[in-house]
Please model this.
Amino acid sequence: MRHEHLAHPVSLSAILLVTLVAQPVVADHAGPRYRATVYPPIANFESAYPGALTPAGAIVGQASPKPFNPQSIAVMTAKVGLSELPTDADSYNQALGASIGGLVVGMAGSAPWYWLEGAGAALSPLPGYLQGAAWDANASGLIVGNHVNDLFGLDIPVYWPAFDAEAIELPFPGGLGGSGGAAFAVNDAGEIAGIAAPTGFFQAVRWDDVRSDPITIGPLPGAVGGEARAINGVGDIAGRSTFPDLSVHAMLHKRFENEVVDLGVLGGSFSEALGINDERQVVGVSSTGGPGHGFLWEAGTLYDLNDLIVSTNESFLYVSQAVDIDAAGRIAAEVVVGKVVDGARRIALLERCQSADLDCDGSVDGADLGALLAQWGTPGNADLDGSGIVDGADLGSLLAAWTG
Model:
């Protein structure tokens, strides 16, 4: 389930970063290649949605009997499919973030929750607040999220110093009397990405630590609000900016260059960045003129992930969104199966194919050698060194990458 927020008429009065802006480029050439592993559903839960990658490359998320049904269970991918993460609630269960040591965070029955090595328990809330979510955790065990003010329906950004500690309010303009905020992501340095607003539009913000006031990130020129949905190890932010005409563009803030990048759209007027790694590879979802598609933004170019997948263990209709990307380039994605665009969802892991793995099956072996020899003396995808022709140098590169 995606966390949505209502807009308000005045912008945030916080520390505004003066930024340079880079313009978007949509791919008109072949990009990196990926193979997809689509995970089968749990019995009686035909749809599944990714939340985040774990450090080991598993995916946490949720599963439901039908698309977008609130009677969901929290899940994690395993070697042969999905496994359920236990809670004490019958609905609104989902895993949203993960860290080292088996720590997974999310929500159960609309309340913040955590799992540690498979066992689950409620996180201790702020006094008087029950609803909310834990969105992410870092290597030191710091957990970030939000509470919902039940009386006014407003979000409050919070953190937990550890899974067994009580929630603490993050600093934000207006405090508990303001219009609120939420903390969506945290890196291992303790820097937090989220949203905040005292009286106006929600803005993308970064907390440099749990005691600091939030710093406004962006928005893009002409935009009136935004969200920071992800943060990498050096403090780069990925999220979105919202414009007065209600169009939304994915954005990247490069921290040390102090540059805001418009990642563009695949088509239409909506895109949102949901994940980023230290290589500044960004993933998310974009409108296309049809159903939304998952995207990868890399080195200034926006790719439709559907154009990059060359191998899959199970057929699917399309990649509908991508929510996370790790240092190895692995992507947590959602795919639609069946024959209709609003059909059942599945969790999928997208893994980048190395150049010598010509058939993108995860190994460099005789099949790849055969493909290279079939292209000998001609251009093709076996031209590993980019010389324009497949020759002995490419053969040497393939043999050096041999896995058998």
Summary: The domain at 357-404 is CATH 1.10.1330.10 (Type 1 dockerin domain). The helical segments are 366-374, 392-400. The radius of gyration is 22 Å.
